[in-house]
Amino acid sequence: MSHRDHLNLQWMRPASLALVLAVALAALVVALPSASHADVSAVQGSAYGCYANTTFSFDPANPGPATETGPLPEVTLPPQGGSDTATAEVCVHRAFVGGPTVVSTGPLTVTTEGTTGPGGSVTSTATLGPVNTDGNENFTAANVSSECTADETGVSGTTTITGGVVHNAERPDGTIGDLVVPENPPVNYTVAVDIEFARYNYIFNEQIENPDGSITVNAVRMEPLTGPLQGTMILGQVVCGVTADTTTTTTLPDATTTTLPDATTTTLPDGTTTTTLPDGTTTTTLPDGTTTTTLPDATTTTTVPETTTTTTVPETTTTTTVPGPPPPTDAPCVDLRAGDDQVVGEVCVANTVTNLLVTYTTTGDWRLRATRLHVAHDADDVPRDGGGNADPQRFDHYQPLNRPPVTSFTHTIPLADLGADAGDQLIVAAQADVQRRARRGRMQTVSAWGDGTPFGSQDVQASSHRSRSHGATFFTYTVRDTTGMTCVDLRAGRGGRQTTGEVCASNAAGNLMVTYHTTGEWQLRATRLHVAHDVDGVPRNGHGHPRARDFAHRAPHRPPETSFTHTIPLAGLNATAGDELVVAAQADVQHPTRGRGMRTRSAWADGELFDTSHDHPAGFPLRYTYFTYRVR
Q1: Which of 362, 487, 481, 471 is nearest to 412 (CA)?
Q2: What is residue 324's predicted lDDT score, i.e. its pLDDT?
Q3: Residue 404: its pLDDT value, please?
Q4: How many Å apart are CA 84 and CA 498, to the nearest integer?
Q5: How many domains does the chain contain in total?
Q6: What is the CATH number of the domain that holds 300?
Q7: What parts of the chain have a pLDDT lower than 50?
Q8: 179, part of any domain
Q9: Residue 563 Cα to chain centre, angstroms
Q10: In terms of residue numbers, what domain contains 305?
Q11: Beta strand extents in 405-482 (DSSP E only)
C-alpha cells in the first residue's frame, strides 16, 4: 500500500471503510475455490564420466579415421524415475591406435536418481580422478566432478576441479606456462593451450540449456582449434530435466476455468468452451461443434461442422471457402530410402533468390552420419565410377556428421555456382550414410538415396523395384521464379557474425509470406515476426530495443524445423502494392554440440540496425536488425 493510499484510508469514514472491506471480503470468498499444483510427470537424467571422438591428420582434406572412446561409465534414468550408478576403473583415449594420449584418468563413478509427482526432482553426478595418469597431457587434476539438479522451479549445475592445472596455457599476462584452474570455475571458464603445430581450448563448467528445458553440464571439454588433432573430449557430463504440469482450476457458479502451462480453458454450463493460448489466440467451441478462432490481430475463423469455413479480417473483407484439397507443398520432397526399400527419412529441395537448399531429415531412430550431394543440369554430369554407377565419393558436396550424428542437415548452394536460373530443371543426387542402434547395442550403418530414377534408366516405371531399392537414384527439381522476393541472412552470435540461414519475404494472392530457412545443422526452435509500415511500429522495451516476445506473429517449433513460413493477410496490414514494409524477423535457432547436447542462439534477419543498436560497443552479443520489403 502506498503512503497516499494509507492516508486516504485514514480519512475514510467508518461506514465507507466497512463497505470497502465487505466488498474485498466477498471478492476473496469468490476466489477461494481455486486450486493450483505443479506435478512432475517425467524426469530426464543421465551421466557419463568420459567420452572422446577424434581424428588425427596433417592433411585437412583427409582427416583420417575417427577413434572413439566411451561414453563410459554411463547411466540413463527412465522417465518414470528411479536411481542408477555405474563405475569404471580407467578411461584412456589415444589420438590414433598407438598414438599419443588425449586423456587418461583413474576411477570414474556416475549416478542419477529422480522421482515424479508432487515435489519431484532429479539429480545427476559424475566424479573421476586423477586426470593425466599418463603424464603427457596438458590438463592435470587430482579430481574432477560435476553435478546438476532439476525440479519444477528450475535447473542448476556445478563443477568442482581439485588440483587442476593446464600446462602450456596462454596466461593473462600473455606468457605461456602452467595455469591453475579455480576449484569452482565460473560457467564456461575457458583456457587456451598453445603448443607447436596446435591450439585448442579447455572449457570448464560448460553449461548448456537444452530446448526441452533440461541442462547439460560438462565438467571439462577439450575443443581443438588448429592442428592435426580434431574432434572432442569430455569429462564428467551430467544432464538433468523434468516435465512439470501446472494446472490451476477455478470453479464459479456459472463457469469452470482450467489453466495449463500452454492454454486456459473456460467451460460454461451449456458445454461451450473457450481456450486461450499464450499469444492471445482464442478458440470458442459451441455445443453443436461450431468453432470460432480469433488471432491476436483480430482475424477470426468460424468453422461450421461439415459445411464451410468463414475468415474475417478486421475492417476489410470476409472470405468464405468450401472445404477442398490441401495446398501443395512448396518444397518438393522425396523419400530417403535404404536397404530393402526401407524409408529412413526424406530429402526436400527449395530455392531462395540466391541459393538452392537441400535438406536431409531422418525419421524414427535413424541418424545422419554423412551426406553427399551432387546437383547438375544433366544426369550424365553426375560423377560415375568405372562401372557407370553414380560415385558419391566424388560428389561436390560432402558433410561428415558423426560428432554426434544428427537428424537433419541442410546443404546451401549458391544458384550462381550452378549456373541455374528460374525454370531450369536440375538433377539432384542425394546420398547419405544413416545409422541406428541395433541389437545388443551395436550400431547399424546403411547407405540411403533420395528416391527417384535409377541411374542408367530414363523410365523409373520400367525399372525393377529391387534395382531401385538397392541402386543409386536421382530426382529432379525445377528452380522456381523468385521475382519480387527479398532474402536476407539470418544471423546470430556476437555482432551477427554467424550465418544460420535466410529469411525471405514475398507476396501473392493477397498475402505476405515470410519464410525462415536454416542451413547446415541449424534448426528453428521458435520464430517471432513483426511487420509494420514504420520502424516505430515495432514493439520496444524500456531501453528502446525491439521486444520479440511482443511481436504479432509467433510460433514455437516442437519438434524443431528447418523451414517455416508465416502467412499474413495484406489487408490486415493495410498494405497495398508499392507500400514499403518494415520486417523484424527473430528466431531461436539451435544446433547439436559435440557433447551430445543442443546449443541455442538468438538470430535476427540481417539489415538495418534499430535506432538504439548503434549505442552498443563493437562485438556486443545482441544485434537487433530489420529489413524492408516493397509489396508488388
Answers
A1: 487
A2: 37
A3: 64
A4: 40
A5: 4
A6: 2.60.450.20
A7: 1-35, 250, 307, 316-330, 457-470, 613-621
A8: yes
A9: 12
A10: 246-321
A11: 408-414, 425-437, 443-450, 453-454, 473-478
Q: Residue 100: what pLDDT? A: 85
Among 269, 277, 306, which Cα is nearest to 291's? 306
CA 551/CA 44 separation, integer angstroms? 32
* Shared-domain flag, residues 60 and 189: yes
Q: What type of residue sits at position 611? A: D
Q: How far apart, in whole angstroms, are the C-alpha atoms of residue 161 and residue 291?
A: 59
* 126 in Cβ contact with 141 (< 8 Å): no
Tell me if 233 sits within 8 A of 72, measured CB to CB. no
193-226 per-position pLDDT tens digit: 888 677 889 999 999 988 788 999 999 999 887 7
| Same domain flag for 343 and 399 | yes
Residue 77 sits in the same domain as residue 113: yes
d(CA 394, CA 447): 15
Give tens-digit pLDDT for 441-468. 677 888 999 998 888 644 333 333 333 3
Q: How far apart are CA 558 and CA 555, in angstroms?
A: 10
Looking up residue 500, the CATH number of its domain turns out to be: 2.60.40
Q: Checking DSSP bridges between strand 198-209 and strand 523-532, what pairing results, if any?
A: unpaired
Query: What is the per-residue pLDDT for 212?
Result: 81
Cell of 440: 545388443
pLDDT of residue 160: 97
DSSP labels, 166-231: EEEEE-TTS-EEEEEPPSSPPTTEEEEEEETTEEEEEEEEEEEE-TTS-EEEEEEEEEEEESSEEE
Instruction: Look at residues 354, 399, 352, 392 and name the one whose alpha carbon lies nearest to residue 522.
Output: 399
Q: Contact, 412 vs 520, CB < 8 A?
A: yes
- In 3-state terms, what secondary structure has residue 258? strand
Contact 368, 407 (CB under 8 A): yes
Cell matching residue 222: 577439450
Is 8 a domain residue?
no
Q: What are the distances in angstroms from CA 594 to CA 202, 230, 261?
A: 14, 11, 32
Report yes or no: 625 and 605 within 8 Å, Cβ to Cβ.
Answer: yes
**Other CB atoms within 10 Å distance of the CB of residue 274:** 17
Q: Is residue 132, in this structure, part of any structural domain at all? A: yes
CB 112 within 8 A of CB 122: yes
Please count the residues of the chain: 632
- Tell me the CB-side half-sphere exposure of residue 492, using CA atoms within 13 A: 20
Rounded CA separation 431/390 (Å)? 10
Residues 69 and 182 placed together within one structural domain of the fold: yes
DSSP 520: B
All residues at 6 or more sequence positions from 239 whose CB lies less than 8 Å from its CB, including other chains = 44, 45, 46, 47, 124, 148, 210, 214, 215, 216, 217, 597
Question: What's the confidence (pLDDT) of residue 322?
Answer: 43
Q: Quick check: bond before 404 cis, omega within 30?
A: yes
Cell of 490: 539470418
**Do residues 528 and 602 make contact, with C-beta atoms less than 8 angstroms apart?**
no
Q: Are residues 231 and 368 in the same domain?
A: no
Contact by Cβ (8 Å): 312, 318:
yes
Rounded Cα–Cα distance for residues 517 and 524 (Å): 8
Radius of gyration of the chain (CA): 29
Nearest in space to 345 (alpha carbons), one of 362, 358, 359: 362
Cα–Cα distance for residue pair 326/504, rounded to 1 Å: 23
CA–CA separation, 287 and 274 (whole Å)? 12
